[in-house]
Design brief:
Shape: globular
Distance between the termini: 27 Å
Radius of gyration: 17 Å
Structural class: alpha+beta
Length: about 170
């Protein structure tokens, strides 16, 4: 549903994880082999991925100033056991955090959160305010006040509802 450019860096992983569920149609990409393969997930990892996805969605809604869509386990609890490793480049001395286990989705998510915090992009990953959408998008607006994943779909629907309510 999103007509915006993908999120930068590691946030693209978080955005694609949140967007595995189309709330409007109920379609969950994690139910398919292709959807799981796109995130490097085994069938046994799907329930944990769903829990992580919904916690990320709640955080993205909070970034946009909206309440959580439902009660979820806090993201920090889910990421507390996700080990990261500090790597330091011998060439220039730069340091990065990377997953200790690159196959573990929680570790990859934790590394992406850490990376986005250091570059200042974390708060720009948001979820659409439309209750039948909540699609994740990266807010590139100058003021950082984006509200919808797509102005032409969710934004237009919201404006039409407001107009009709008058």
């Amino acid at each position: 549903m999103n007509d915006r450019a993908p999120a930068p860096g590691g946030l693209a992983l978080l955005q694609s994880l949140v967007n595995t569920l189309d709330i409007e149609t109920g379609t969950d990409a994690l139910d398919t082999v292709e959807g799981r393969a796109g995130l490097g997930l085994a069938t046994a990892d799907v329930e944990a991925a769903r829990e992580l996805r919904e916690s990320l969605r709640a955080v993205c809604l909070a970034h946009a100033g909206h309440p959580a869509h439902r009660e979820v386990r806090p993201l920090d609890e889910l990421l507390a056991s996700a080990p990261l490793v500090v790597t330091v480049s011998a060439a220039d001395g730069s340091a990065t955090l990377r997953p200790a286990d690159p196959a573990a989705l929680a570790s990859r998510v934790a590394a992406a959160v850490a990376e986005s915090l250091t570059v200042g992009t974390w708060l720009r990953l948001k979820a659409c305010e439309a209750p039948d959408c909540h699609w994740a998008y990266y807010d590139r607006s100058p003021a950082g006040r984006g509200r919808w994943c797509s102005m032409s779909v969710c934004g237009a629907r919201a404006k039409m509802r407001r107009y009709r309510a008058k």
